Amino acid sequence: MPGLLLAGGMLSWTSAASGEMRPLWELGAGLGVASIPAYRGARGADLYLLPLPYLVYRGRFLRSDSQGIRGVFYRSERIQLNLSGYAGPPVQSGQISARAGMPNLNSSFEIGPQLQFKLIERPGYSLDLRWPVRAAFTFSLQPIGWTSTPHLQLDLPDFRGSGWMLGASLGPDFADRRYHAYFYDVAPAYARPGRPAYSASGGYSGSSIYLTASRRFRRFWVGAFLRYDNLAGASFVRSPLVETQQYLVAGFGVSWIFATSSRMVESEEP
User: Fold this and answer.
1) First to last CA, the chain
2) What's a Pfam family in this record (predicted)?
3) pLDDT of the chain, 270 residues: tens digit per residue
């Protein structure tokens, strides 16, 4: 769903120093706005005004923090194995010229394990390698394949003492044939002049650069994200449903933090 995309892009805030005592949970609510294309390669984007929940939970297994909502299965000094997720908006074919006359696509979500390996940790910044592998489904629970998005993640908490937390990630995307087929196949029944039948293959899905900025104030949180995608060389790039090989996704949000736990726990955030 678009709201989950927005939350995934902006759910990042000024973290406490590792080992500092912080509330077990913090809860807030707000609004966000995001410009999101129907799918990777679609021309144009829709503007969404979305509810934006703010949730921090510092449990031993379930956590919601600057790395998103996840379950932590294993953690050592340099390695962490957790559960990660992602969600995408529905596709209304009638609003996309390349898909005119084709069926609409349901909202989708992805869930699966993520291996996180800390490459560098220094005062003021950290660099991780993160490698999620996720099973993808529609919201009607139809399986639509697998994805993998290994990337380097740079975090700059409290950038130059400003209170702002900055983040950047870079990496390639991969998916199997079934996942690419869901978005980019053209069945013979829907072929027409200018839109030949097409069968996508699995493999490389393009690359992404992802930037985030956020700051936690006493009772408010503000955040923004910007994502650039380049599909040059992707295994499905010759699909007639790919209208553009590069595009931007952006969002901004504000949340009011109205409740915090009285129970304090040791924070493990960067």
Assistant:
1) 29
2) MipA
3) 333 444 444 443 333 445 577 788 888 999 999 998 889 999 988 888 888 888 887 766 666 555 555 556 666 778 988 888 888 888 999 989 999 999 999 999 999 999 999 999 998 899 999 999 999 999 999 999 999 999 999 999 889 889 999 999 999 999 999 999 999 999 999 999 999 999 999 999 999 999 999 998 989 999 999 999 999 999 999 999 999 999 899 999 999 999 988 888 776 655
Q: How far is CA 203 from CA 100, 159, 177, 185, 243, in A?
A: 27, 37, 7, 15, 19
Q: Please identify, in words, the CATH class of the domain defined by 2-266.
A: mainly beta
Q: Residue 80 corresponds to which amino acid?
A: Q
The domains of the chain are located at 2-266
Burial class (CB in 10 A: 0-12, 13-18, 19+), 88: buried
